[in-house]
Specification:
Elements: H1 4-17, E1 25-31, H2 35-47, E2 51-57, H3 59-67, H4 71-87, E3 90-95, H5 108-130, E4 132-137, H6 141-146, H7 151-162, H8 166-181, E5 185-190, E6 193-198, E7 205-207, E8 212-213, E9 217-220, E10 228-233, E11 237-239, E12 242-244, E13 247-252, E14 255-260, H9 264-271, E15 280-286, H10 298-301, E16 307-312, E17 332-334, E18 343-346, E19 349-353, E20 356-357
Parallel strand pairs: 1-2, 1-3, 3-4, 4-8
Antiparallel strand pairs: 5-6, 5-18, 6-10, 7-9, 9-15, 10-13, 11-12, 13-14, 15-16, 16-17, 18-19, 19-20
Helix pairs in contact: 1-2, 4-5
Organism: Brevibacillus panacihumi W25
Protein name: Aminopeptidase
GO molecular function: aminopeptidase activity; metal ion binding; metallopeptidase activity
Length: about 375
């Protein structure tokens, strides 16, 4: 018998996240093989009168494609994926990686071709900019291991997170969005961190279960050239199969002028992908009450309660500072006391201390008020 939580998740994705309508075309793209959820999504799409299409991808096959690729080859792949994406109304990606390091030894120049030629054209410029979309993971043994949990415990955690009442969370987000909309100066302090920038005029976006599952953040972008100071990211991160720890940036006039980590050379290779990859495209505050610790999966880690992320690379067109890049790398700092604490200030007013919101109008986003 199918787990009823899968059907509940499929219903939320189709009816709430995408608000899929009769006659609309939906692309379901599954990397890995999660037939239970894919079948449930197909049935739910048909139930609302939509037209579902399914693509199944395998991580090891993708690795072989990327290893041998060229500009000409990737342009050919991008041509067909772009035409299909352009024809869709909505998109769901289910990604369940058995090995998060599967792509770690694909040469960086090959991954750069994929990022510039296919991902930017198909996803950054078309899917993210023009479609309704939602991206999620699916519980497997690899994710359970990264979370230091048994598979059964991780599955329970996963469905608690993904089937959260996001409509309730959305209402609690509104005061933070409105505050960010009218804020000019931001200062963030914490261990090895003293960061200053402006978000004036950019605008803020609520992430309330309509783009990513799990969800739970409000994001904007810094004025591109306004970032000054240093930041230390205390959450490990994985980019294209390579894991980094102890990432630290120094900024001058918006640009990352110094970058170090557990793998400083690989870090700087990524930041040198293009001109925009050394500037910041997103600043976001995370507060999902169920997600407390990093697990090397950014869809979860960027939503950690008491965290924020500060993202080198491309800005979203709905909160746009003009930065363009084939890179968009969400890097996370957690500010709860067990991670060293920290403060976020808006226009010289303290809004969050040690991971907890301190302004009365924002207290609805503290964990006890969201579960």
């Amino acid at each position: 018998m199918a787990d009823p939580r899968i059907n509940e998740l499929a219903s939320r994705l189709i009816r709430y996240s995408l608000n899929l309508q009769k006659g609309e075309k939906l692309l379901i793209e599954n990397t890995g093989l999660q037939p239970e959820l894919v079948r449930a999504l197909v049935r739910e799409a048909f139930a609302v009168g939509a037209l579902p299409l399914v693509t199944l991808k395998d991580q090891e096959v993708l690795r072989a494609l990327y290893e041998g690729t060229s500009e000409e080859h990737m342009a050919l792949m991008a041509k067909y994926e772009y035409e299909r994406m352009k024809d869709m109304d909505a998109y769901i990606a289910i990604r369940a990686y058995e090995n998060i390091n599967e792509l770690s030894d694909v040469p960086e120049d090959k991954m750069g071709i994929y990022a510039r030629v296919l991902y930017q054209k198909v996803h950054t410029n078309e899917r993210i900019a023009n479609k309704r979309w939602v991206v999620l993971r699916y519980p497997n043994k690899s994710m359970a291991q990264l979370s230091n949990m048994s598979l059964e415990r991780f599955e329970n955690f996963y469905f608690d997170v993904c089937n959260l009442d996001y409509a309730k969370m959305s209402r609690a987000m509104t005061p933070l969005k409105e505050l960010m909309d009218r804020t000019d100066r931001v200062r963030i302090v914490g261990p090895k961190t003293d960061l200053r920038f402006s978000i004036k005029g950019i605008g803020a976006i609520k992430c309330d279960g309509k783009r990513n599952i799990p969800d739970g953040e409000v994001y904007t972008a810094p004025v591109r050239d306004s970032v000054e100071g240093t930041i230390y990211y205390n959450a490990a991160t994985n980019y294209n199969g390579t894991t980094f720890t102890d990432v630290q940036f120094t900024f001058k006039e918006g640009k990352i002028v110094e970058a170090t980590s557990s793998n400083t050379k690989a870090l700087n290779d990524i930041l040198d992908t293009d001109e925009g990859s050394r500037y910041i495209g997103e600043f976001a505050i995370g507060f999902n009450p169920h997600i407390l610790h990093p697990m090397l999966d950014i869809l979860f880690d960027e939503k950690i309660a008491g965290s924020f992320h500060f993202t080198p690379g491309n800005a979203y067109n709905v909160a746009d500072n003009g930065n363009r890049s084939s890179v968009h790398w969400d890097l996370v700092q957690i500010q709860r006391p067990e991670y060293g604490g920290g403060e976020i200030w808006f226009d010289d007013v303290l809004i969050r201390k040690d991971g907890r919101f301190v302004l009365p109008e924002l207290e609805g986003l503290n964990p006890e008020n969201l579960v």
